[in-house]
């Protein structure tokens, strides 16, 4: 059977086949994209558990949260609400301010874990798949200048992570 002839005679079937193949490809690719965010979040949750048991060599004391996990959830939600609508009605100054709140590595790891994975939007339309806080900030939500200010703030507090 000649495929070109069949497609000319049955364009609806051809469109349906192309659409089906496209949908299957989309689902496969989106699965590959979503897995890294989930693995990253699991890794951060494991890091929180490790940091809770880590003894600070300078003080000889285990690292403690400076706020409760619930308070870090509120900070994470504030960051999300400040950046969720890329390019429209976002509040990057607040996101920068909130990202400067962690006082130690455990605070930052807890903030990232409390953020979880969230959907960002571009003009009200979902922009890619759900991302962790690291993915959202690394995707360009904040300017290089803002990230440099946050990194300088972390350096003064002894936080090892850099954006």
How would you describe this protein?
This protein is mainly alpha-helical. The protein has one domain (36-157). Helices cover 66% and strands 4% of the residues. It has seven helices and three strands, in the order αααβααββαα. It has helices at residues 3-9, 11-53, 69-83, 92-99, 105-115, 133-141, 144-157, and strands spanning 85-86, 121-122, 125-126. A three-stranded mixed beta sheet has the order 1-2-3. Helix 2 (11-53) packs antiparallel against helix 5, helix 3 (69-83) runs antiparallel to helix 4 and helix 4 (92-99) runs parallel beside helix 7. The N and C termini lie far apart (57 Å). 21% of the residues are buried. The model has no long low-confidence stretch (mean pLDDT 84).
The count of helical stretches stands at 7
Q: Radius of gyration from the CA trace?
A: 22 Å
Secondary-structure content class: mainly alpha
Strand order of the largest sheet: 1-2-3
Shape: elongated
β-sheet strand percentage: under 5%
Low-confidence stretches: none
Question: Which SSEs are present, and which pair or pack?
Answer:
Elements: H1 3-9, H2 11-53, H3 69-83, E1 85-86, H4 92-99, H5 105-115, E2 121-122, E3 125-126, H6 133-141, H7 144-157
Parallel strand pairs: 1-2
Antiparallel strand pairs: 2-3
List the main descriptive attributes of the protein structure presented here:
single chain, mainly alpha
How do you describe this structure in short?
With 163 residues, this protein is mostly helical. 66% of the residues lie in helices and 4% in strands.
